[in-house]
Each structure stands twice: as C-alpha cells, then as structure tokens.
C-alpha cells in the first residue's frame, strides 16, 4: 500500500510495499520510484475533478512482478494505492494460452495430416507445418529405400522441396537412432556445428543456432525422423518446445504410417485384382466386341459377373466369348470368377464342343472346395466374308439377344443347365449369323433384374431390354453396350443393384474398317492408369 | 482462330460422315485435315467438339434418332482415340504435373471430359482420364494413390449437381483442388461457385489457362458440411422433396389421369414415358432447390417445351403437370415459389422452334 499526495510525493509505504520499492521513503517523487503506468495513472486521478471519480483497476509490472493497482482517493486529496501481486496468475495464464495455442496447432496438424493417405503429400504437409509452427526450417527424413532416403525440406515462407538422395545419416547426431525408433539425443545436447550441410534447406539463413531430431513413431515400424532447425539469431528450443516437437512428431508419424499402410494395401489389392478385372475389348479378326461391367457395390471394381474374349489363333479360327454369373457377389464371388475364367482358358482347344467344355468345367467346379454354382453363355465367333457366324450355348443363363437390321430383337434358342450344381450339364448349342451392322448381346440378370423406374421398385425386365435394343439397330458395338448400361443405370436412378455385365458382338457395317485398326485398339474412351 | 473458313468446311464434312454413321469417312476427314496442317488441338476443339454439340441439337430437334446420336458419339470417340494413338503423335511426357479428369458420378456424357483430357495431354500434363460412371469412392482412392495437382470434374446434366457437390467436398477434404467444367455448372459457372469448386473453366482452353496459373491446395483442417456451403438447405425442402420423389411421381400420375380421362387409354409404355417425364421434372425441381435457383427449373421447362414441340407433343401438358405437383407441395414455400416461377416462365415462353432447326 502506498499513499501519495496530490503533488505526486510519497506520503507513506507499508511494510509489504517496501521490498517492492526499495527507494520508497516518504517525500520522494512517485515517478522516480514506480514505472510510468502507475505514475501516469496517479497524475490522471489528481487532475480529474472531482478527484474521487476513479473506477477501473490498473495493471502493470513493477520490477519483475506483476500488479493490479486499486486507487482510493482520500478527503484530503491523497491517493491510497492498493497494490495486489498478480504475478502467479499472470504466469499461469500465459502458460495456459501457450498450451491452448499448441493444442490448436496439434488439432489442426492432426486433421490436415489425416486428410491424406498419400505418402509424399503427407510428408510435404508434415514438413511444412513443422516449419510453420515449430522452427524456421524442417527436414523430414523417411526411412531409407535401399541406400537412398526420401527427403522433404521445408522453410518458413518457401515452397516445400522433395528429393530422394543418398545421404550420410550417421553424420547427424541422433538421426540414425531416430530412424530406427530408438530415443534420439535430446536437442540440448546436439552441437549445431555437427550438422552436415545436406540437412540445410536451400535458402536457410544459417548458421544453425539449435536443432531437434525427433523420431516419427509409426505403427510398429519407424516412419522416419524430423529435424527441426533454428538459426543462431533465433531463440534456442526450450524444454517445453522440445516436448511439443515430440507430440507433433507422434501425430505426423501416425499419419505417415497410416498413409504408408494404405498405399501398400492398395498396391497389393491392385495387383491381386488385376486378373479379376474385366478385360478391355476391341476388334478381333474383323468382328467388333465391346463390354461393360458395373459391380454391385460402387466402391468395388469386381463382383460375381465376368466376361472374356479369347481370340482365335487366326481369322479362320473361332474366337470364344464367355459371359457368366457366379452365385453371390463381392470379393468371394470375384475370386470364383477368376477360377472359372482360368479353367475355361485352359479348355479353349476343346471349344468346338460347347457342351463338352461345360461338362469339364462342371467337373472342376464340383470337385473344388467352393460350393458355388454359375450360369454362363459361350459364343464361338468367326467372320465369313462380311457375315459373322455364331455358335451360342447357354448354361442356365439368359439367352443372348440378337438385334437384326430390320429392328427385330431375337432371342437365341439355346438352353442348358447351370454349372457347378449337378453331376452333368445338358446344353443345346444354336447357330446363327449376323449380317453387317447386326449385333448379338450377352448380358447378366443384373440388367433385367434392376429395380427402379419412375415408380421405383419395378423390375427392368426383358421386355424393356428388348425395346431398348430395338432402338439400337445398326449401332456400333460400344454404343449398344453403353446404351444398355445407361438405360439400366437410369432405371435404377441410384438404387441398389446386382452386378451388371454386358458384351456386344457386332458384324461391322459393309466397307467400314475401323480407324482403330492396327493402332493398338483398346476400348476408346477408357485409358485407365492406376499408379 | 487460325483458318476459320477451312475449319468450318471440315466441321461440315465431319458432320456429314458422323451423321451417316461412316466411321471410316469421319477418320479420313480428320486425318486429312491434320495432314493439311490443322493442329490437333484445333481438330479436337474446333472440329470434333462443335460436331458433337450439333449431335445434341439435332437430337433435340428430332432430326436424328437416339441410335444415330449414340453411333455419332461412338464415332467421335474413336476418331479422338485414333488421333491420340497415332504413331507420330507428339504427346509428351507429362512434365507439367499430374491431373485427374473425371465425370460426375452418374454422368454419361463423357466426350467433353475426353476432349479436355486430350488437350491437357497436348499441353504437357500427365492426365489420368477416369471417364464416365466413375463412382466417387473410386475417384477418392485414385486421388490418395496419385496425389494429383487438381481434379477436373465434368458434368453435363444439372441433375447431377448434388452428387457433384459431394464429389467436390470429398476431393477438397483430402487436399486436392477441383476445377469444375461443363454445362451442368450453369452459365458463367454459377453453380460451380455455389458448390465451392476451387475454379471453373468455360472450356478446354480456359482449363489449360487455369492450370497454368496453378490452383492452391484447399485447406483440409476446416471441416465442411453441405449446409455450410448452401445455408438454404437448412429448410429441409430439398431433402424432403428428393426423398418423396416416388410418391410425388405416383400421385401426379393419378391426379393427371383424373384431369385428363384420355390418359386412361394410354398403353403401359405411354404411361411409363409420362411417368419418366414427371420423374425428370421432379429431378430438376429438386436440383433447383439444392442450388436455390428457380431459373434452373424454368430453363429445364422451356427446354422441354422445345423438345416436346419438335415431337409434335403439346407443351401445355407441362403446365398441368406443374399444377398437380404444386398441389402436393403446399407445405414447402421455397418449392412452391420455384414451381410458380417455372409456370410463369413456361406460359410466357412463346412456342418457338428448337435452336438450329430449319423451319
């Protein structure tokens, strides 16, 4: 407590005030003893008329302590200043706001890092955020691939640079340990002079003042290490910042390993899936083929429907087309389609007799441990002059539909039992011919059993399919396939559906060799690349 | 801009070949023009694109059949493929970076996206063309694996806008910016802005320019919901009307039968067509509610009136349909307003021929 008169002279200071203001003897001038904020406040109070109208509390430092000052104006015009030491609360508040800021940063870091499952992108984001929030520059060293390490350099206010280089990991104290996941050397013990030049991002205004090497803990395996750099003009890392850096590294490590795991799994899946995906169809020996596939679940690419075109060894040989449907859907069914496709591939030399092939397949399926049956259609195709000869056999499958040039849509009169259920398959093969411009369509029941339409919950049905096909007279094979898939998709209008597969076999229109001939073919309109 | 006269002649020749279903002729027209010095980009954008546009116009005017439309599109696709697969094609290595071109899930019009993909390849981009019917989960998985500089999202039919919105949000949530394009996004790309696409481009050349400038990565730390972009969705009118689509279609059909006894003699196929038309109307209505633009609905109605007129179907049946529809939706002020503005636009719309039609 201080009492100060209207002229700014100290009248009295109590015992508690003396240690704070050692020179506070009565009669000394206030402004010589206390900081300006308090002296000015006193001045203001005494100049105000009437002097008693003072309200708000004042705050400020005296020496290294922090005080609240509450003035009370006495009747004689003296002001009694009550000083309340507030230092500890102030310190706590500062610490709290630091913690808040850091947890905000961590939460932003987490959601940003978790948004991507791409490893290079994840490293880029982690390094950039480290440079923004933790240090002047950051280098993310990923575990070596062979003898080279993927490196990500980030500097405040500069674009991130990513390279893969052979570097001397042992040259950075603690880095080798961090990359192995062992606890690295604490920052305070790293001598900045020991840091080799390769660690410095381009444009870093050295020399280095302080360094932290933090391991990125992964899911069981180290995900790399983070090197944080500050130049000598900046404050060195405090212990609190070091702890914060480790928290940050833990988040980054978790995100990076998730991304790495996802990428590995996706690559494995893609490899295993390769043979299960429907093939790209194109023109073979003067006959046009087009196919389209839609898996029942939109996030999957494969299912229980399948098709294949096995080109004959020469234009005079028959090409075998297969389209089928394994009971069930999803991955299990897809694995089964792979087996059937392989078996049929091996049976190609016997394709002259469809029923025989179906019986051999039937035997193979019956002895397999999978208790699944399948329906399928076989079509042997050969071009003769400008016409296309077809031998068609259905094994428990919807008969192929033939779109004639006069607009008629015929059902091939083939019939047979399904495979993989009974000891023997009985099937009748029919022969027919396509004139130029005509198309034979093989399809699975996913099309005809599509439920939807304007009134919802109605089956698409064979009649609608035939009506749609009647509009496809003289259309190229791809256009027919696309039209059928489109009409079925519109019928569904987003509803659930079974796997849907369609294959069109078309006799090209007279005198119309395709432009894709001799240029690799491939289904136009799709050039998927996955990596 | 170069040799406009020559290009016009090539467009006419290609149109002839394509509309005759003459694939060989179409290829010859394009490859001859290439040999005579027309650039590949000009062939794609100033020859093939206008021909494809004309395919749509001619179908609208009922001068070509659905089959011809599909055949023409298939031929255009093949001609593009033949340009891309030429042995001496000067496609480069994709040094500019990698981008993904995809259609909105459910969109069947793949050709505009295909043209953009080809043009970007010519400009040095490595392009992953995912084509039509790409489910959004596939697109997102692809983005995780490849980390492209941008996704170019193509949409032709406005009814796919709600799906487009979900796709845009999904791409941005994993830090990949979206460049939207195609007629679905409205005049001047107004719906692209509403749906918070990072950029919009009017055509392939504009897309090249936008990518040249670079698109910053979206901020992934912000969590966003559809209603944050489109606050009007909070009134739930879109949700309710979209969910009631089957009942609305059924009830409208019943009410229309009550008004027009002649409908009772319709064949099943005719009834189905009518139901499809109503369903289509409801789809556009819900889309207009989603983007909160009655103009979108009015535009659809006048376009449909043109289509009907070209097929000698009286367009006033549309007005009765709207009337019946409005009767079922009196609890929804924004919906009613949209229908009302649509009806007004339709009645004020002078019956006139389809654009491009010769009288």
Automatic annotation (TrEMBL), chain B:
<dbReference type="GO" id="GO:0031419">
    <property type="term" value="F:cobalamin binding"/>
</dbReference>
<dbReference type="Pfam" id="PF02607">
    <property type="entry name" value="B12-binding_2"/>
</dbReference>
<dbReference type="InterPro" id="IPR006158">
    <property type="entry name" value="Cobalamin-bd"/>
</dbReference>
<dbReference type="GO" id="GO:0050667">
    <property type="term" value="P:homocysteine metabolic process"/>
</dbReference>
<protein>
    <submittedName>
        <fullName>Cobalamin B12-binding domain-containing protein</fullName>
    </submittedName>
</protein>
<dbReference type="GO" id="GO:0005829">
    <property type="term" value="C:cytosol"/>
</dbReference>
<keyword id="KW-0479">Metal-binding</keyword>
<dbReference type="InterPro" id="IPR050554">
    <property type="entry name" value="Met_Synthase/Corrinoid"/>
</dbReference>
<dbReference type="InterPro" id="IPR036594">
    <property type="entry name" value="Meth_synthase_dom"/>
</dbReference>
<keyword id="KW-0170">Cobalt</keyword>
<dbReference type="InterPro" id="IPR003759">
    <property type="entry name" value="Cbl-bd_cap"/>
</dbReference>
<dbReference type="InterPro" id="IPR036724">
    <property type="entry name" value="Cobalamin-bd_sf"/>
</dbReference>
<dbReference type="GO" id="GO:0046872">
    <property type="term" value="F:metal ion binding"/>
</dbReference>
<feature type="domain" description="B12-binding">
    <location>
        <begin position="96"/>
        <end position="237"/>
    </location>
</feature>
<dbReference type="GO" id="GO:0046653">
    <property type="term" value="P:tetrahydrofolate metabolic process"/>
</dbReference>
<dbReference type="Pfam" id="PF02310">
    <property type="entry name" value="B12-binding"/>
</dbReference>
<dbReference type="GO" id="GO:0008705">
    <property type="term" value="F:methionine synthase activity"/>
</dbReference>
């Amino acid at each position: 407590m201080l009492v100060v008169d209207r002229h700014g002279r100290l009248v009295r200071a109590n015992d508690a005030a003396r240690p704070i203001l050692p020179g506070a003897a009565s009669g000394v001038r206030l402004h010589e003893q206390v900081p300006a904020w308090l002296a000015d406040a006193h001045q203001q109070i005494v100049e105000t008329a009437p002097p008693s109208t003072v309200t708000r509390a004042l705050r400020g430092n005296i020496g290294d302590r922090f005080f609240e000052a509450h003035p009370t104006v006495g009747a004689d015009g003296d002001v009694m200043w009550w000083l309340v030491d507030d230092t500890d609360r102030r310190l706590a508040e500062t610490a709290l706001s630091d913690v808040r800021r850091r947890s905000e940063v961590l939460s932003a870091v987490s959601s940003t890092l978790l948004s991507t499952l791409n490893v290079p992108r994840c490293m880029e984001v982690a390094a950039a955020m480290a440079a923004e929030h933790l240090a002047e520059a950051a280098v993310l060293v990923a575990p070596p691939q062979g003898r080279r390490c993927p490196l990500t350099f980030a500097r405040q206010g500069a674009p991130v640079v990513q390279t893969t280089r052979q570097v001397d990991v042992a040259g950075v104290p603690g880095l080798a340990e961090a990359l192995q996941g062992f606890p690295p050397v604490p920052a305070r013990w790293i001598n900045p002079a020991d840091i080799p030049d390769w660690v410095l991002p381009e444009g870093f205004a050295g020399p280095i003042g302080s360094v932290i090497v933090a391991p990125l803990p992964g899911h069981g395996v180290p995900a790399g290490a983070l090197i944080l750099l500050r130049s000598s003009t900046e404050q060195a890392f405090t212990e609190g910042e070091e702890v914060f850096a480790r928290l940050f590294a833990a988040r980054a490590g978790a995100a990076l390993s998730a991304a790495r795991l996802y990428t590995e799994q996706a690559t494995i899946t893609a490899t295993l899936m390769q043979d299960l995906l429907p093939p790209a169809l194109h023109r073979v020996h003067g006959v046009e083929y087009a196919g389209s596939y839609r898996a029942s679940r939109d996030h999957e690419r494969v299912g229980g429907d399948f098709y294949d075109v096995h080109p004959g060894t020469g234009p005079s040989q028959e090409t075998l087309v297969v389209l089928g449907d394994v009971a069930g859907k999803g991955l299990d069914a897809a694995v089964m389609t792979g087996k059937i496709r392989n078996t049929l591939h091996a049976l190609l030399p016997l394709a002259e007799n469809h029923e025989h092939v179906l019986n051999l397949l039937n035997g193979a399926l019956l002895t397999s441990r999978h208790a699944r049956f399948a329906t399928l259609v076989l079509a042997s195709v050969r071009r003769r002059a400008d016409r296309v000869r077809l031998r068609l056999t259905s094994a428990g499958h919807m008969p192929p539909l033939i779109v004639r040039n006069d607009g008629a849509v015929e059902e091939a009169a083939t019939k047979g039992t399904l495979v993989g259920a009974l000891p023997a398959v009985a099937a009748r093969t029919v022969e027919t011919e396509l004139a130029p411009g005509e198309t034979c369509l093989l399809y699975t029941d996913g099309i005809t059993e599509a439920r939807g339409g304007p009134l919802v919950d109605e089956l698409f049905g064979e009649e609608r399919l035939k009506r749609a096909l009647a509009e496809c007279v003289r259309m190229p094979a791809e256009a027919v396939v696309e039209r059928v898939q489109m009409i079925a998709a519109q019928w569904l209008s987003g509803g659930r559906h079974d796997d849907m597969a369609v294959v069109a076999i078309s006799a090209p229109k007279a005198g119309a060799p395709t432009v894709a001939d001799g240029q690799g073919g491939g289904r136009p309109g799709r050039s998927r690349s996955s990596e | 801009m170069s040799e406009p006269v020559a290009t016009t002649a090539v467009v006419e020749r290609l149109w002839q070949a394509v509309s005759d279903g003459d694939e060989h002729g179409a290829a010859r027209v394009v490859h001859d023009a290439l040999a005579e010095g027309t650039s590949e980009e000009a062939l794609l954008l100033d020859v093939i694109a206008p021909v494809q546009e004309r395919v749509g116009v001619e179908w609208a005017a009922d001068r070509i059949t659905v089959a011809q439309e599909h055949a023409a599109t298939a031929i255009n696709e093949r001609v593009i493929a033949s340009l891309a697969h030429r042995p001496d094609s000067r496609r480069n290595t994709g040094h500019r970076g990698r981008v993904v071109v995809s259609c909105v899930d459910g969109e069947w019009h793949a050709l505009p996206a295909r043209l953009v993909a080809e043009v970007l390849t010519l400009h040095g981009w490595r392009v992953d063309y995912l084509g039509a019917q790409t489910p959004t989960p596939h697109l997102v998985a692809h983005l995780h694996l490849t980390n492209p500089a941008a996704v170019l999202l193509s949409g032709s039919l406005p009814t796919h806008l709600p799906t487009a919105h979900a796709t845009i949000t999904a791409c941005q949530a994993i830090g990949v910016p979206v460049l939207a394009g195609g007629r679905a996004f409205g005049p001047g790309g107004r719906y692209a802005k509403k749906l918070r696409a990072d950029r919009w481009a009017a055509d392939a050349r504009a897309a090249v320019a936008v990518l040249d400038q670079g698109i910053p990565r979206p901020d992934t730390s912000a969590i966003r919901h559809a209603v944050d972009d489109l606050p009007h969705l909070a009134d739930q009118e879109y949700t309710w009307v979209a969910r009631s689509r089957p009942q609305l279609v059924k009830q409208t059909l019943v009410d229309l039968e009550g008004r027009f006894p002649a409908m009772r003699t319709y064949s099943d196929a005719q009834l189905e067509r009518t139901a499809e038309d109503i369903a289509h109307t409801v789809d556009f209505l819900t889309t207009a509610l989603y983007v909160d633009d009655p103009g979108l609905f009015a535009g659809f109605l006048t376009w449909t009136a043109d289509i009907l007129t070209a097929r000698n179907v009286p367009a006033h049946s549309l007005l009765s349909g709207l009337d019946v529809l409005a009767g079922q939706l009196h609890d929804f002020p924004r919906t009613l307003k949209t229908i009302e503005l649509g009806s007004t636009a339709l009645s004020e719309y002078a019956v006139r021929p389809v654009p491009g039609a010769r009288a």
